[in-house]
């Protein structure tokens, strides 16, 4: 979840533009000029890992290019749902593995990054985006919330282009293949589970 929250925080500092055509993956710049399409090698994958009775989950998730380049261009779309209101306290348990010499190695929790448990995601969101402040783009444009509670319903963000700025990553979070699993709970009741496989290319 730290990765997801960090991604939401980045939305406020990166440039975002809606994709011109969902099939060609062309993007629009501030000057409305076309640039080269973002290509993917097709190794990114995701899956809901909870039971059918879990009230929340994803319907679709697309991230390109693959591997994700930092810094670089990123195109993402997402659609999800929750059958119940998601209210505090919300806890997220993240397990993160990196492929090292063909072996999957669990990344420990170091400075709140890695395989960590986040006891109060709502409070974390309030730190990243102070209450009363507008949600960053493109959340604001598409009416997506960035604070608890998250009302029951469906949420989606169409294909949108981001420019990821240079950031200082932990020494272990370099180029490579990763697998992450996040479990969302409230008062020890599991609400959602998500598995994601992705690759990073840092410069």
Provide structural commentary.
By secondary structure, the chain is mostly beta strands. Helix content is 8%, strand content 41%. It has 2 helices and 11 strands, in the order H-E-E-E-E-E-E-E-E-H-E-E-E. Strands 2, 4, 6, 7, 8, 10 and 11 form a 7-stranded mixed β-sheet that branches. Strands 1-9-5-3 form a 4-stranded antiparallel β-sheet, with no helix packed on it. The two termini are 24 Å apart. The relative contact order is 0.28. Residues 1-42 have low confidence and may be disordered.
* Number of E-state strands: 11
Q: Beta-strand percentage? A: 35-45%
Largest sheet: 7 strands, mixed
Mean pLDDT: 82
What sort of overall outline do the alpha carbons produce when their principal axes are compared? globular
Radius of gyration: 17 Å
Q: What ranges have pLDDT less than 50 throughout 5 or more consecutive residues?
A: 1-42
Number of helices: 2
Helix-residue proportion: under 10%
H/E element order = HEEEEEEEEHEEE
**Based on helices, strands and strand pairing, what is the structural class?**
mainly beta
* Beginning-to-end CA distance, first to last residue: 24 Å
Please give a quick description of this structure:
The protein is mainly beta and 203 residues long. It is 8% helix and 41% strand.
Describe the SSE topology.
Layout: H1 2-10, E1 16-18, E2 45-48, E3 56-64, E4 68-70, E5 72-82, E6 91-100, E7 103-106, E8 117-118, H2 121-128, E9 153-164, E10 176-186, E11 189-202
Parallel strand pairs: 4-11
Antiparallel strand pairs: 1-9, 2-11, 3-5, 5-9, 6-7, 6-8, 6-10, 10-11
